[in-house]
Amino acid sequence: MRCSARGRVRLTALAVILALAVPAMAQTAPPAADVSVPTVSVPAPQATPPVVAPAAGAPIALTLPRDLSPWGMFMAADIVVKAVMVGLAFASVLTWTIWFAKAIELLVARRRLARAIGALDQARSLADGIARLPDSDNGAAALLRAAETELRLSAGAIEPIGVKERIASRLERLEAAAGRRMIRGTGILATIGATAPFVGLFGTVWGIMNSFIGISKSHTTNLAVVAPGIAEALLATALGLVAAIPAVVMYNLFSRWIAGYRALHADAAAEILRLVSRDLDRGAFDQFSAAARRPAAAAE
Predict the structure, then answer these.
(1) For residue 64, how many other CB atoms are within 10 A of its CB?
(2) Which of 67, 155, 282, 298 holds its CA 20 to 30 A away from the CA of 90?
(3) Which residues fall within 8 angstroms of residue 215, CB to CB, at 6 or more apart?
(4) What is the mean pLDDT of residues 4-22?
């Protein structure tokens, strides 16, 4: 009995000790570690602007010219392109000057010659034709004087047919001289029309070459680098066409007008030959021969 009582006391003491030890151990135990991983926000990458490599030396101003008018492009052009533009402008002014001068000359000459042909058509003899055109400043009057001169020089001739041939030869030479005189100056139009496009093309090539030089110096194809050279190149091309196209048109027009003027000269020469033929058939050649023999007889 005693042993059992002692055993119960021990068990009771052990239970009390355990009851007191468990809360103390719970209070002194270290806290559990926090294993949660915090989230980190990564910013999105931003696009970086392209880097322009500057040329060695001064900084590059990548700005377009403020004045792209024709005058502004001319003032900003290279000295060679400026010389090309000035030459083409002078050629254009020369073309229009020849146009006005030659057009007025041709119109006046054709009108006078047409009136003279009408007067010769109404004449009955060479003397009548000379009377209808007294001191007239046109080609028909020169043809009449040439015919009269040949009649006087041929006063001692035997065959009238030879006189007509010599008069026809004189009239033909006068007609050719009138054509050469009227065509004078139109050769400049042909030269300008043939060379002006190539001169403008030379300015174009030079301006584009300047653009490529600017690209090589700045190492960029920015519009501000290539725009001035391309602008002066296009202006040189335009001036070449402005000088060439009117020159070609005017030259072709003058060629047709001069051909018509020479045809009028041929008509006047044919009228004069008809008058000479009438006079020879009527015996007027004998009158010229007698008039030429009288001074010779008086001299003897």
Answers:
(1) 11
(2) 67
(3) 221, 225, 226
(4) 63
